[in-house]
Amino acid sequence: MSTPPPNTPLSTASGIPLADNQNSISAGPRGPLLLQDFHLLEKLQHFNRERIPERVVHAKGSGAYGTFTVTHDIAAYTKARLFSEVGKQTATFARFSTVGGERGSADTERDPRGFAVRFYTEEGNWDLVGNNTPMFFIKDPIKFPDFVHTQKRDPQSNLKSAEMMFDFWSHAPESLHQVTMLFSDRGTPDGYRHMDGFGSHTYSLINADGQRVYVKWHFKTRQGIKNLSAAEAGRLAGADPDYAQRDLFGAIERGEFPQWEVKLQVATEEQLAQWEQRTGWNPFDLTKVWPHADFPLLPVGIFELNRNPDNYHAEVEQAAFSPANAVPGMGYSPDKMLQGRLFAYHDAQLYRVGTNHQHLPVNAARCPFHNQQRDGGMAINNGGAARNYANLAAAGSAPQGLGHGEAALALQGGAARYDGRGAEDDFSQAGNLFRILTPQGKQNLFDNLAGPLSQVREETLQRQLAHFDRADPAYGAGVRAALQALGKPA
Q: Which residues contribute to the annotated binding site for heme?
């Protein structure tokens, strides 16, 4: 609903003017209230229902509108029209968030940050749903509910638990790369404007000739990377738990529009196969990154946020992203975590917002759309008199030159449950990340880890320390020294 014109009289939701919004209808001045007071009933009924379920992850977030401007030609890689010419602009909406906290949690908690961007293109909505880190904790979506439960609350005490977190992480060496990033200074970014964003997953682009390349998306902040110390993040969690939202909203209101340089890593299937043979790293494993030395960043465009929403609930809380929203010229990859998210995100929005959440203004495509989906709650655009079915063509489903029309994604292997854990390298990239930290950055990492590790069982502690040792002996030694300083020998 748009903002009503000035001096519009107060009314019921059906538009009926109200005579009195201060007093209920009663039988006499002190008598009981009457059921006929529909305004009272409507007001209380709506109040009881004005919350939708919060997101299971990414519950606390901030959003804004903006633009994406193409600065470099990438037509060799994709036929997507939003990249069709240098200078072209596309409207966008972005939502930033913490991951593990509830909707009322603090913006400055040590946590990855969600970095989701919607592009309202002439071919439909493209949602790039990522984080402020290029990797993640796990590589198979079947473990995602287990992992997220460890970041929430203990089922008995209803308290956050360091033991739960490190019990899971210590049994999952694949998490070490992300754990190292999380407990570094980048685990507490200074608001949303001063952090990078990543598509994180491996995606693909398809050009006009049907050729596919695999890509990684990067958003490099033009404001510069700034992080909070652990002490300052903790202070702000109490003094201003909405710190990041206040910073983003205020900057846009002042006309200080934040910008990110959008860049791309590109590789053919053959190049990735050669790289995997040389390094032993699966290019579709979300716990790994593609080193820039092997796959340089290519400039694509500028992403800017320049307008705050008018209504938080309608435009930010009800914003419903899904990585399955990929326009023609874009595609997916064998990344197992991506494959799981293609289902899970849309399904979550169906439950959280409703069957027709894509009809809401913040979610609706800004180009014409047509399908046979009908009915259900909030059917704002229900297709009018158009047929709600499509006939089966006698010639089958030969491509008509519209839509994705992409070349087949080659798959191989028998259908089975494959477990490569223990045989894969989960330590080298974590060690590489550790070694590029400054001396002070390493000490901050040690201290940030020592706090929660001092609260875990000895068995869990030793299992986690062994992972640090395998990444780099100096890593494990540094954490042990930090634990010693806290009075917990390791």
A: 345
